[in-house]
Design goal:
This protein is an alpha/beta fold and about 525 residues long. Among the domains are: about 30 residues; about 90 residues, no CATH class. The chain has 23 helices and nine strands. The strands form three sheets. A five-stranded mixed β-sheet has the order 5-4-3-8-9, with helices on both faces. Helix 7 packs across helix 21 and helix 15 packs antiparallel against helix 16. It is globular, with a radius of gyration of 29 Å. About 25% of the residues are buried.
Length: about 525
């Protein structure tokens, strides 16, 4: 599989090079080379700091050396050995110099249980039961290893089988697949509880999505999370209703309440539709079938009206169950995410300017100046998050109007500035809610995990496989955000090292920041 991917990448590069050469020979314009804006790093208050003041790995190691803390101080020593040595006459003993060696021991352990069985006078065979910790022909340590390798280290099933065979273990591909995808109801339940706890207590959530293959068809995997939790959910379509249903999680009901009314007004629904929906205010419908029957009985059958009414009822369900509440949704600007209180990622917004194709020196100068002004404004917004004040808020609002209200004479640039100015409220949410991030960098980084798995392993071929992919990626990311080793977490949940990791939903709730008065 890896060789095929490498060969395919080489062929794509060769085709692209040939296309560039043909364009050059025909005196045509080549594909524009658009570099990343560098807006986030370029506006980092730590950029350009003196050595030892930043947060890079090299600088952290330098600080550790200054404090006299070697890395080996964090290790748990299993064995101590005194090196034999014969001193010369007259030498004085001054102590020991420590030298630490780390090693890894991997071995296959096979336990055989001799189960006595008896024949009763009635002719019935009675066999001694297995110990409680025995659950199938493969132990908890193997399951822990497989889950860690596949979902954390992205090792494919064929490679896992080859690896275990090299270790001397007899196991088939089907058995590995079953261990990775079946019998994980407790993990699925904790993942659902993590998502619910996060959405109940979140002050903001950052979202993103990417394609995901399932049962031979293209689907969508949506990432939802903040600095405490992450949830991945695979759905069939990319639209606003599906996103709202993803937020709703394990709940399946549709509720008509004040939140549904507010949603219909926010989406500019017609007065006739609002009257039809709100005529049944206070009602709840158990599932999609009951809701569909209600729509037909009410006379709401037009596709757009059905979609808006369903979105409103799901929004009512979210409010009914206490999910999202007043949380800000930070996104890259995709339409399906633009619900409730929405904030637009500044990095994605600035790309409208960065991607402009300039021809003359005057156009390049105009774009360069505007980008510089945006960077300065962005840097000051980052500083405002750490130290908000009423004076700074008013100043930043005025600066926004000056930067995005400019007229440069470059039509494409002026059009982009106008479009961004129209989204002023979404770009300046941070002025009223300083805890909200200015970008979706966290979501962009987290969504790489399912993308990498898609490239390496393709898609999932069963509902169990899809659910396990979503569950274990979510739990792994949530553990990372809470400084918990995923290996330790798996060991605790599988009973190898019990009572070492608290329930993740409890950790998320403890870390919740109360809303400002």
């Amino acid at each position: 599989m890896i060789r095929l991917l490498e060969a395919n990448a080489k062929l794509e590069a060769a085709v692209a090079a040939q296309a560039e050469e043909i364009a050059r020979l025909k005196n045509l314009k080549g594909r524009p080379q658009i570099k990343p804006s560098g807006m986030e790093k370029g506006t980092d208050p730590g950029a350009g700091a003196a050595p030892g003041e930043g947060t890079t790995k090299k600088q952290r190691r330098r600080r550790q050396r200054k404090l006299g803390q070697p890395k080996s101080a964090r290790l748990i020593v299993d064995d101590d050995h005194v090196v034999p040595f014969t001193p010369e006459p007259g030498w004085r003993f001054k102590g020991y110099k420590l030298y630490t060696v780390q090693d890894l021991v991997i071995e296959v352990r096979v336990t055989r249980y001799w189960r006595p069985f008896y024949l009763t006078p009635e002719g019935k065979v009675v066999v001694a039961p297995l110990p409680e910790e025995v659950n199938g022909h493969f132990g908890a340590n193997l399951l822990r290893y497989l889950l860690s390798q596949h979902y954390q280290c992205r090792v494919t099933m064929p490679l896992l089988r080859q690896q275990l065979g090299d270790f001397g273990m007899l196991i088939s591909a089907g058995q590995i697949s079953n261990l990775l995808t079946k019998g994980h109801d407790d993990f699925h339940a904790e993942k659902a509880a993590v998502k619910r706890a996060g959405l109940e207590t979140a002050r903001w959530i950052s979202v993103d999505d990417t394609t995901a293959r399932h049962l031979g068809c293209n689907g969508i995997i949506t990432q939802i999370g903040d600095d405490r939790f992450t949830s991945f959910d695979t759905v069939e379509h990319k639209n606003r209703l599906m996103f709202l249903m993803t937020l709703r999680g394990e709940f399946k009901d549709y509720v008509i309440n004040d939140a549904a009314l507010v949603y219909l007004h926010e989406q500019d629904a017609s007065a006739a539709l609002i009257d039809l929906v709100m005529a049944h205010e206070g009602k709840a419908f158990a599932d999609e079938d009951a809701w569909t029957d209600h729509l037909i009985a009410t006379g709401i059958t037009a596709p757009k009206a059905v979609r808006l009414a369903s979105e409103a009822a799901v929004a009512g369900s979210l409010d009914h169950h206490g999910l999202v509440k007043d949380a800000v949704i930070v996104s890259d600007g995709a339409g399906q995410f633009n619900v409730f209180l929405h904030a637009l990622c500044w990095i994605h917004a600035e790309r409208l300017i960065n991607r402009l194709i300039t021809v003359t020196d005057a156009q390049r100068a105009a774009v360069g100046l505007v980008r510089l002004l945006i960077w300065w404004l962005y840097r000051d917004l980052k500083l405002y998050r750490s130290s908000p004040s009423a004076q700074a808020k008013a100043s930043l609002r005025a600066r926004f109007d000056r930067v995005f209200g400019r007229t440069t004479g470059f039509a494409d640039l002026d059009d982009a500035l106008t479009r961004l100015k129209e989204r002023k409220a979404e770009l300046l949410v941070v002025l009223d809610r300083p805890e909200v991030p200015l970008n979706t960098n966290g979501s962009e980084q987290e969504i790489r995990d399912p993308v990498t798995i898609r490239k390496i392993s393709g898609g999932t071929r069963s509902e169990d496989g899809r659910q396990c992919r979503d569950t274990f990626l979510s739990l792994k990311k949530t553990c990372q955000k809470n400084a918990i080793s995923f290996w330790t977490y798996l060991g605790d949940r599988l009973g190898i090292a019990a009572n070492t990791v608290a329930r993740l939903p409890d950790i998320i709730r403890r870390r919740a920041v109360p809303a400002a008065a």
